[in-house]
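Below is the data:
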Amino acid sequence: MQEFWNKVVEIGATYGGKIVLALVTLIVGLIVIKAIGRIVRKALEKSAWDKIVKVIILKVVKILLYLILLVGIIEILGVPMTSVAALVASGGLALGLAFQGALSNLAGGFMILIFKPFRIGDYVESTGAEGFVEDISIFYTKILTLDNKLIMVPNGDLMSSNVTNFTAKDKRRIDQDFKITNDIDQELVKKVLLEACAGTAGVLSEPSPFARLTAVDDDTYIFTVRAWCETPQYWDVYFDLIENCSKSLAAHGIDDPEERIAVRLVKEEDGGEKP
């Protein structure tokens, strides 16, 4: 028994000071971490970042501070740091391999929330998904298609691919091609198309509408119409412009060569005169 107590006294004399210093360091460290956490929280509250980004930053800061405190205590206790570093490195590698996809999505979500390549309500296209952004979380972005299908797109894929944001700007351009027979006066076609643009609700006068001959294919002229509109009105103006241009061309006797061929075929089948 006396030998046991002698051993205890020996261990206490050898490691007692280190243990007491480690405990003091732990207590002081926890107080300091809590104080730093409050300072960081107040600073984040003044920023314009999303709430979820603020939460992540605060948690990351606290984790780093706890790791620093832990390393300091281990150093005080005299544990070889090379062994600790090797253990941490092997554990980190194993976790990284196990959660590779999740970590990629986490990093992607973090980047999306910070840099905001798109926002909730924007109409985007990426990685084969196209629709309105319904929600942005840390791991996935929800995209609602025009036919009411919900697509969950991993944030890692979004950040590693091209993303087209159709609603990022306040104006969009509508491009339409119209096939015209080559026996029609080009200036007349341009005039008719520009008048149709001017008569379409939602078409902006600046930038001014465009109507020009852009290609010639055998007996066909191809005229391109370009008109600008406000982004929220894009689809309404898009379809109205097609309708108005088609009606205006027909009203002036300007037809599509394919329609003319169809009429000829019908006359032949009915036994009428062949051209």
